[in-house]
Amino acid sequence: MLRVALVLFVFAWIFGPRELRSAVPVWIVFLIALGLEVHFFAGALRRTPPPLPDRRPQTVDRERYGYAEEAGDLLLVREGDEELWIPYSGERDDEVDVLIATMREQLDDDAPVTATSAERRPLWPAVRRFLTGLGVIAVLALVLWFVEGRTGWDSVDGDTRAEAVARFSDEASRIAEKPVTIRCDESRDYVGLVQHADGVAAVGGDRAYLTPERCHDLYRLAFDGEVTSSQTARALAVLAHEAWHLRGVSDEGTTECYALQSGVTLGQRLGLSEGTARQMMRQQLTENALRARGAFEYLVPPECRDGGRLDLDRGDTRFP
Ligand SMILES: [Zn+2]
Fold first, then answer.
1. How far is ligand 1, taken at its centre, from the CA of residue 297, in Å?
2. How many angstroms separate the alpha carbon of residue 197 from the centre of ligand 1?
């Protein structure tokens, strides 16, 4: 069940909406799956209960006392919380008392034997299940690595990537009004893991990092003219957002408001028509309220409107 869920998730991650990719770092899912496998395996190792003690006399005892064939004729005698099985073949009461005394001695001598003879549950099925689980995880990781290498930012060759990054840096420098550098954080040291963001920049700094997904979206737009509506729009907004941080704006809502306005020109410079660029940034503004849920600092302020305090071009009645 767990493995089916993992397989489905990884395939959804590869072929499903990009939003899933940027929302959930896939390595966390692998880590959880691995943790569960280890957990189940450890549980299986611990869960080796001793079999319920056979409360009838042991075969060896029956043989010793010559009652091997008469297991059915056993008399259960309870004394306090003790239970004794007495071989019974029509003895009188006083004879039974003697038998009880004999059995009790016998029980005291043999009690530890019963405990140590408890059979251990075989270990192999648990080990096999665990190894199968590890195998499934390893194969999925391999598939993911293979697919990623062919379709993502990593599939773009090194020279082209360098060219693309130089282009992104130029565009960001225009918005920041100073020379800045954009990096695509392939190693995910800065974005995508901890910050849960598409990009990161120091306010007033000269370098910003974007996730490989966003870099790839921008690359596809600028170099291949490919547009995947919401992803392309988001990538433009992210690049403009980080550029505004580099320019010195720290407030997240204000930064985003400026970014969505700059995103129109940025989109046009990277190959969109003005109409499409405006429509994309308006869409981003509409979605801002949804995205900002749970992270209020990213919500654009009410002044982010045509003619508002944050309107960068008050002479223009279009916004963004
Ligand atoms: Zn920001």
1. 9
2. 8
> Measured between alpha carbons, how far is residue 235 from residues 1, 91, 177, 273, 295 in Å?
36, 95, 20, 16, 19
Which residues have beta carbons under 5 A from ligand 1 (an ion)? 252
pTM, entire model: 0.60
Q: How far is the CA of 298 from the centre of ligand 1 (A)?
A: 8
What's the CA gap between 55 and 127, in Å, rounded? 32
Give 275 Cα–ligand 1 centroid separation in angstroms: 26
User: In this structure, what DSSP letter does residue 188 have?
Assistant: -
**Residue 288 Cα to ligand 1 middle (Å):** 13
Q: Which two tokens stand for residue 145?
A: 């690595």
Task: Split the chain (320 residues) into runs of 10 and give each run's mean pLDDT.
Answer: 80 72 72 87 77 63 61 62 64 68 65 48 84 88 77 89 97 97 82 64 93 94 90 95 96 94 97 96 89 74 91 88
Task: Say how many residues make up the chain.
Answer: 320
**Domain residue spans of the chain:** 2-48+121-151, 59-116, 156-298
- Find out whether 285 and 260 touch, Cβ atoms under 8 Å: yes
Question: Cα 186–261–263 angle (5° rounding)?
Answer: 35
Query: What is the Å distance from ligand 1's center to 228 Cα?
Result: 23
